[in-house]
Amino acid sequence: MQNLEMLMAFEDWARPRGYDLQRNPADQQFYNVETRAAWLGFEAAHGPAGCRPYGQQLYARIKKISEYAHQTDELFAVSVGKPPYDNYAVRGGPGGVYRLNDVDLYVVDDGKQYPLS
After folding, report:
1. Is 53 a domain residue?
2. Which residue from 38, 97, 87 is spatially nearest to 62, judged by alpha carbons?
3. What percentage of residues in the chain have a pLDDT greater than 70?
4. CA distance 24 to 11
5. Which pTM does this prediction carry?
6. Fewer Cβ neighbours under 10 Å: the N or C end of the chain?
7. What confidence category does residue 57 fall into, taking pLDDT thresholds of 50, 70 and 90?
8. Where do runs of H (alpha helix) occur along 15-109?
9. Which residues lie below 8 Å from residue 96, measured CB to CB, with a gap of 6+?
10. What is the pLDDT of residue 53?
11. Does 72 share its domain with 103?
């Protein structure tokens, strides 16, 4: 259970479906065999070898002039869509949502970063 974000997503998915989410405090594994099997499938589907969308992944880096620049200087995976509020259309990264003018967008191909401007 090393990826807390994935575990939280699994619990959000499993809870309304009635899975027993009690875990062993010693090793953090699920007690229930069906829940354990569902977790293993969820982890496989959403992990590095899992399903991926077609096309290139979009990445962002927070601009140094942004009020959010303190959050990270690393690239992070994002998607762009209808803003949930205001003009925060970029989803992903440590803050969860950003305005387009707060980030620089990139694609990465064969380890090389290509800025989109």
Report:
1. no
2. 97
3. 95
4. 15
5. 0.55
6. C
7. confident
8. 33-46
9. none
10. 61
11. yes
In a domain, 38, yes or no: yes
In a domain, 52, yes or no: no
Both 37 and 63 in a single domain?
Answer: no
The total number of structural domains that make up the chain: 2
Which pLDDT score is estimated for 1? Answer: 47
List of E strands, the chain: 58-62, 76-80, 90-92, 96-98, 103-109, 112-116
Q: What is the mean pLDDT of residues 60-77?
A: 95
Q: What distances in angstroms separate CA 98 from CA 32, 63, 114, one per listed residue?
A: 39, 11, 20
68 and 21 in a common domain: no
Per-residue pLDDT reduced to its tens digit, 23-54: 998 988 999 999 999 999 998 888 777 776 66
- Pair 34, 72 in one domain: no
Residue numbers of the domain that contains 37: 4-46
36 and 81 in a single domain? The answer is no
Q: Which residue has the tokens 């009690």?
A: 22
CA distance 61 to 100: 11
Can you name the residues that pair with 103 across neighbouring β-strands?
62
Q: Is residue 66 included in any domain, yes or no?
A: yes
